[in-house]
Amino acid sequence: MSKIYIIDVTNRDGVQTAKLGLSKLEKTLINIYLNEMGVFQSEFGFPTTRHESLYLQANLELAKMGVLKPIHLAGWVRAIADDVTKTFDMVPDIKHLNLSISTSDQMITGKFRGKKTKDDIIEMMVEAVDTAKARGAETIGVNAEDASRTDQDFLVRFAIAAREHGADRFRYCDTLGYDNPFSIYEAVKSLAESTGIPIELHCHGDLGMAVANSLAGAKGAMEGGQDAYINTTVNGIGERCGNADLVAVVLAITKSKRFADKYQLGQPIDLSKAWKTAKFTSYAFDVPIPINQPGVGPNAFAHASGIHADGVLKDPENYELYNFEELGRGDPDLVETGREICTGQYSGISGFRHVMGQLEGKAAVTFASAEEAYRVLELVRYANVESHKPLVEDELIFIARYPEIAKKLLTMRPLDYQD
């Protein structure tokens, strides 16, 4: 039986959200949380973008150290051979790539201005795949941008060409959120049957159907005989109206009627890490979790109606489809109302050592010497300068535990930098 795998794209599509962004340390923490949850792959950045290269290298080092395992770390690259070459020149240890190119008549006419034909699109993609294989890529996903507005026969040609040249997956991108559950099911089932390649579902929420479309597309892929890979972002953050929300997708796969008992995840997702992941991502992006967000929203387990309150007190299953403890919720949020010592860009060594020695819920961090404490404090100062907000406990612990990796994450090379 074909299975469903989760590929999270928060660190690629999420950070492309207008007016928002993440520091490299914040992106790294999200990768760690996704790994703890059991997510199959994180699309962790842009390997041809200069300011990403040290971050990408640092995360690949964490993978070698076993900190980021078994999660795959994949770069997003235009399906252009020169970009693939540049990728391996800048980030030599990268092993997983998603190569993207537009495929619809709208994009070929309106974006490429008629300078490319459909045959050109396939030729460019194939050349990029061949280059990636030659440079040692272990897995390659090929992305058809605007697939939902692309002629189906052309999508079949495109996907077959990708498979024949060694691509591992075909990404069906509902780039504008144009599909509905019925249309995407039919299109993806036909693609799976016709092409013989596993299919990714990349759905946007412009019409409010990203999660529903992701499930329907996955159903189509599996009933067409192929594994399905659903793209998600934490809290549904993403361009315009967002992407399919990670927690909502997993809840829908594992809890929804006549789906959960028939279609299964290829590897288990630990939902007990969901609350921590959602809360940190909300803090990092500085975007509150919507009050009605499935599973992690402030009202997900709130009851005011007399009938509902009475029913849930008698038996939570009367009005709750799943338990808040499954999501890792239930611990009180503590708010400091007395004396508070914060760490930041102007922190001193005394206050810093106090904070590190008082961390809640984890082993307090102590330092072997004043020199070691100063080195870590300096990194914390730079991290605060980059993020413009106080660091959370896991960030402080990460810097103290992996100072050399943190140093890479906090290093920016200017344009005139010479290696």
Overview of the molecule:
With 419 residues, the chain is α/β, with parallel strands linked by helices. The chain has two domains: 4-285, TIM Barrel (Alpha-Beta Barrel); 349-409, no CATH class. It is built from 15 helices and eight strands. The chain has an eight-stranded parallel beta barrel with strand order 1-2-3-4-5-6-7-8, surrounded by seven helices. The N and C termini lie far apart (50 Å).
CATH homologous superfamily descriptor of the largest domain:
Aldolase class I
Give the CA-based shape: globular
Average pLDDT across residues?
93
Main beta sheet: strand number and arrangement? Answer: 8 strands, parallel, barrel
List low-pLDDT spans: none
- Whole-number radius of gyration? 23 Å
Provide the CATH architecture of the largest domain: Alpha-Beta Barrel
Query: Strand sequence of the main sheet, in spatial order?
Result: 1-2-3-4-5-6-7-8
SSE blueprint:
Layout: E1 4-8, H1 24-37, E2 41-45, H2 53-65, E3 72-78, H3 81-90, E4 96-102, H4 105-110, H5 118-134, E5 139-145, H6 152-164, E6 169-174, H7 181-195, E7 199-203, H8 210-223, E8 228-232, H9 246-255, H10 274-285, H11 306-314, H12 349-357, H13 370-387, H14 393-401, H15 403-409
Parallel strand pairs: 1-2, 1-8, 2-3, 3-4, 4-5, 5-6, 6-7, 7-8
Tell me briefly what this model is.
The chain has 419 residues and is an alpha/beta fold. The chain has helices at residues 24-37, 53-65, 81-90, 105-110, 118-134, 152-164, 181-195, 210-223, 246-255, 274-285, 306-314, 349-357, 370-387, 393-401, 403-409, and strands at 4-8, 41-45, 72-78, 96-102, 139-145, 169-174, 199-203, 228-232.
